[in-house]
């Protein structure tokens, strides 16, 4: 694999990873799986293989249903996406770790692309040992971790969750406030885990050599100079990026002032952690609101 750079996009959730996938997937020197987020390593480490398989099967069924009404190029695209899920189920369904088979899965169909990768934000929650083992999968392995203002990231994450069941804007807003209130009571463990920057940053800084890690900020991502830095980090040519495009944007629902104050108090330590571990926080973060 000396001719290939292995890329892991490891988060954070709602910090620009979908846009990064959108951009890199259209780059001629990059080959990514057609479906974002493989969840290979977290499924294995957290004993969630069957849950991942169930989700993939549901997605497959949805694609198959759409195929019945599709024709021509659309039918062919859907058939390809179904076949890719089947291919991944063949790997994940074995339920045991097969590092070389995983790398071979990523490389299949690359047609000379210099970078292959897996963008799964949940990987930021993996252990330091797991990150080290991932870093050892290839001679050149790169990690990208994007951060977003803690309050904005939390509320975007909540709005995404609230929108899963659809409904009117009021329905989504009501669900978002309900999820937020559950988070304040400690009843949303997974959501709370994704609010932590100290743990992932500490593990990344320890496990991944500086030359192989890119730490960036959502607030600075949609700029030509940032895109150029990412391309240089990956060893690929910088190409124009759709800087005005937003991918998987959550419903535009405002965070009420009272709840914003609660979030600011709860997340205040995260601003300190980022400043301490990275050395700065970008303009536009709400640090002043929490006294940082």
UniProtKB/TrEMBL annotation:
InterPro entries per the UniProt record, alphabetical: NST/OST, P-loop_NTPase
Record-level Gene Ontology MF annotations: sulfotransferase activity
Keywords, sorted A to Z: Transferase
Keyword Transferase: yes
The keyword Methyltransferase is annotated on this UniProt entry: no
Name of the protein in its database record: Sulfotransferase
């Amino acid at each position: 694999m000396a001719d290939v750079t292995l890329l892991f996009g490891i988060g954070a959730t709602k910090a620009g990873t979908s846009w990064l996938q959108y951009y890199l997937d259209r780059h001629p020197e990059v080959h990514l799986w057609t479906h974002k987020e493989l969840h290979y390593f977290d499924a294995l480490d957290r004993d969630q293989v069957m849950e991942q398989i169930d989700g993939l099967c549901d997605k497959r069924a949805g694609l198959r249903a759409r195929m019945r009404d599709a024709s021509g190029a659309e039918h062919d695209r859907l058939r390809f996406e179904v076949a890719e899920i089947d291919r991944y189920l063949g790997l994940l369904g074995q339920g045991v770790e097969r590092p070389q088979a995983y790398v071979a899965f990523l490389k299949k169909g690359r047609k000379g692309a210099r970078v292959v990768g897996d963008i799964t934000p949940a990987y930021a929650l993996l252990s330091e040992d797991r990150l080290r083992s991932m870093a050892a999968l290839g001679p050149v392995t790169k990690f990208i971790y994007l951060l977003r203002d803690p309050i904005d990231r939390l509320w975007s994450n909540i709005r995404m969750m609230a929108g899963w069941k659809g409904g009117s804007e009021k329905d989504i807003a009501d669900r978002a406030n309900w999820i937020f209130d559950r988070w304040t009571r400690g009843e949303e463990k997974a959501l709370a885990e994704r609010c932590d920057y100290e743990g992932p940053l500490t593990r990344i800084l320890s496990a991944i050599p500086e030359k192989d890690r890119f730490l960036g900020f959502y607030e600075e991502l949609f700029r030509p100079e940032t895109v150029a830095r990412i391309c240089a980090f990956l060893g690929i040519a910088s190409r124009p990026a759709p800087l005005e495009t937003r991918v998987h944007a959550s419903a535009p629902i405002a965070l009420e002032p009272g709840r914003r104050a609660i979030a600011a108090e709860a997340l205040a330590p995260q601003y300190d952690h980022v400043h301490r571990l990275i050395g700065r926080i970008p303009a536009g973060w709400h640090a002043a609101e929490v006294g940082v």
